[in-house]
Amino acid sequence: MIASLIIAVDGPAASGKGTIAARLAQTYGLPHLDTGLLYRAVGVGVLDAGGSLDDAAFAETVALKLDASHLTDTDRLTSGEAGEAASRIAGYPGVRAALLAFQKAFAAQAGGAVLDGRDIGTVIAPEAPAKLFITATPEVRATRRWKQLTARGQDIAFEAMLADIVKRDERDAGRGAAPMVQAEDAVLLDTTDMGIEAAFDAARRIVEAARAKHGL
Ligand SMILES: Nc1ncnc2c1ncn2[C@@H]1O[C@H](COP(=O)(O)OP(=O)(O)OP(=O)(O)O)[C@@H](O)[C@H]1O
Ligand SMILES: Nc1ccn([C@@H]2O[C@H](COP(=O)(O)O)[C@@H](O)[C@H]2O)c(=O)n1
């Protein structure tokens, strides 16, 4: 029986899933977890400790020691360097296992929750009554991310941004451990031609349909 409103929001980098997830959480009064931040914190933790992103065992020890104090430096965690580091260590099964229980507990809390990431609808909360897979073309996603980072003063060429997005998509979708894939029961939302408001409205309609279907 489905008793609470768990909203699973998955999709590739810079598709707008975090923006939509945060707005849905606000709308329904639910707690929100950006699970990408956990992987970013592990990647940054490895780099700061002088470790190698190729060292799976070391990344796992960093993941096992992760706590809330590692999630506060949002400027650093949302940098391009952190995103790249995150996607490198996210392929290690030991890292994913270390972060699993916390995410599952967050999803299962009374009243429901909103989580965004790559494997929410497939691994973290396969029982979620509302699942969205948010996407947009790589060019549009690279443009969004480029604008976001350059507005913050980061110096990056658009072509390099696009190459990074494409590489990250391939890595996230191609790995063996919890690859990025649309869950069978997720609704696809392509925001290529949508602004933030239109994308959010479409997402809310998907959640409303799921609520009606499950009596939530
Ligand atoms: N539909 C949209 N139209 C235009 N800009 C958008 C749209 N959705 C999100 N954005 C902007 O694109 C950028 C990336 O959005 P967001 O961080 O929500 O993406 P994400 O999928 O969560 O990325 P990440 O892979 O880092 O988790 C932000 O600057 C956000 O304001
Ligand atoms: N559930 C998740 C969330 C994220 N990842 C990996 O982390 C990278 C950064 O995530 P962002 O959402 O902040 O861009 C991402 O590229 C994934 O490799 C993940 O594996 N699972």
TrEMBL record:
Question: Would the keyword ATP-binding be found if you checked this record's keyword annotation?
Answer: yes
EC number from the UniProt entry: 2.7.4.25
SUPFAM superfamilies documented for this protein:
P-loop containing nucleoside triphosphate hydrolases (SSF52540)
Query: What InterPro entries is this protein classified in?
Result: Cytidylate_kin, Cytidylate_kinase_dom, P-loop_NTPase
Instruction: Tell me where in this chain the Cytidylate kinase domain is found.
Output: 7-202
Q: Which Pfam families match?
A: Cytidylate_kin
Superkingdom, according to UniProt? Answer: Bacteria
Which keywords belong to this entry? ATP-binding, Cytoplasm, Kinase, Nucleotide-binding, Transferase
- Annotated catalysed reactions: dCMP + ATP = dCDP + ADP; CMP + ATP = CDP + ADP
- Tell me the enzyme class: transferase
Q: Where in the cell is it found?
A: Cytoplasm
Similarity comment: family membership: Belongs to the cytidylate kinase family. Type 1 subfamily.
Q: What is this protein called?
A: Cytidylate kinase
Q: Which organism does this sequence originate in?
A: Brevundimonas kwangchunensis
